[in-house]
């Protein structure tokens, strides 16, 4: 498994398993298969309502804690300093862990104007050693700029929607400049349209790989962290088998040319409510 070094010096697997919208029963099957296939990074959130099930699988697996990298997130309705600390403690308890490797502000929700004090609560949890690294999710450039101006600890990652049809090139450039890793949710694109793209299919045929493997390899060579979600054992195993080949410079350019600016999820600036069905 390829590891990347975050701006706080900690190492994180570049590929992990996402469990958005995965039921408790499915988490047991998916996470168990992932561990068997070599995954060591798992991405959950309070909003996914499966932290407890994931924690059970991890504890029962026998994999040493220091080999695992667990991410969770504070949900919108729990933003604010005191509420965030309480939400973090719930997640820590649900996961059954002594610490969380990476904790994120799930959405900036600029209308709430609470993301700065929410992030300061993450800083406090980090000072106490309850979380090793802290970051954000779905933040745009203006949100990151304000955060870095008003807070002490630079985010290590910004987890955002990113796939061949929505490549976030400007945001990626900003994050790279400030040593913040982009982490892609829905890296294969919700709905799977990018998997059927003719260019992707052609490159896949060239390498005798699946379209999903080509897209994941593109992300990795872009320097992006990826957390593909799957509950299908064969696909879970397939998704991690992307470290035995490389895309050529020309193939990378071909995929770069597919960008349509096609966002499938919510726009972070449109987050006016604490609950919006279907959000990542």
Automatic annotation (TrEMBL):
**Which Pfam families does this entry report, sorted A to Z?**
Aldo_ket_red (PF00248)
Residue ranges of the NADP-dependent oxidoreductase domain?
Answer: 21-259
Protein name as catalogued: Aldo/keto reductase
Family to which the UniProt record says this protein belongs? Belongs to the aldo/keto reductase family.
Which InterPro entries does this UniProt record tie to the protein? AKR (IPR020471), Aldo/ket_reductase_CS (IPR018170), NAD(P)_OxRdtase_dom_sf (IPR036812), NADP_OxRdtase_dom (IPR023210)
Which chain regions cross the lipid bilayer?
none
The record's keywords, sorted A to Z, are: NADP, Oxidoreductase
Which PANTHER family has this protein been placed in? Answer: 2,5-DIKETO-D-GLUCONIC ACID REDUCTASE (PTHR43827), NADP-DEPENDENT OXIDOREDUCTASE DOMAIN-CONTAINING PROTEIN (PTHR43827:SF3)
Where does the record place the region Disordered?
A: 261-280
């Amino acid at each position: 498994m390829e590891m990347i070094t975050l701006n706080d010096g900690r190492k994180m697997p570049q590929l992990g398993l996402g469990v958005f919208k995965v039921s408790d029963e499915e988490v047991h099957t998916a996470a168990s298969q992932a561990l068997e296939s070599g995954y060591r990074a798992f991405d959950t959130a309070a909003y996914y309502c499966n932290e407890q099930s994931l924690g059970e699988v991890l504890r029962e697996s026998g994999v040493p804690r220091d080999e695992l990298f667990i991410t969770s997130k504070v949900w919108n309705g729990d933003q604010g300093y005191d509420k965030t600390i309480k939400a973090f403690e719930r997640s820590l308890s649900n996961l059954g862990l002594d610490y969380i490797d990476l904790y994120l502000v799930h959405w900036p929700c600029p209308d709430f104007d609470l993301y700065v004090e929410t992030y300061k609560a993450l800083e406090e949890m980090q000072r106490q050693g309850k979380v090793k690294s802290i970051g954000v999710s779905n933040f745009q450039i203006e949100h990151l700029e304000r955060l870095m101006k008003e807070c002490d600890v630079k985010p290590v990652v910004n987890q955002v929607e990113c796939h061949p049809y929505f490549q976030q090139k400007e945001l990626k450039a900003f994050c790279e400049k400030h040593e913040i890793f982009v982490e892609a949710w829905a890296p294969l694109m919700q709905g799977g349209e990018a998997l059927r793209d003719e260019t992707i299919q052609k490159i896949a045929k060239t390498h005798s790989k699946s379209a999903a493997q080509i897209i994941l390899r593109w992300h990795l060579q872009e320097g992006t962290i990826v957390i593909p979600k799957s509950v299908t054992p064969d696909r879970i195993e397939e998704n991690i088998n992307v470290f035995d080949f490389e895309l050529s410079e020309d193939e990378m350019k071909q995929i770069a040319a597919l960008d349509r600016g096609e966002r499938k999820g919510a726009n972070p600036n449109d987050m006016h409510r604490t609950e919006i069905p279907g959000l990542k």
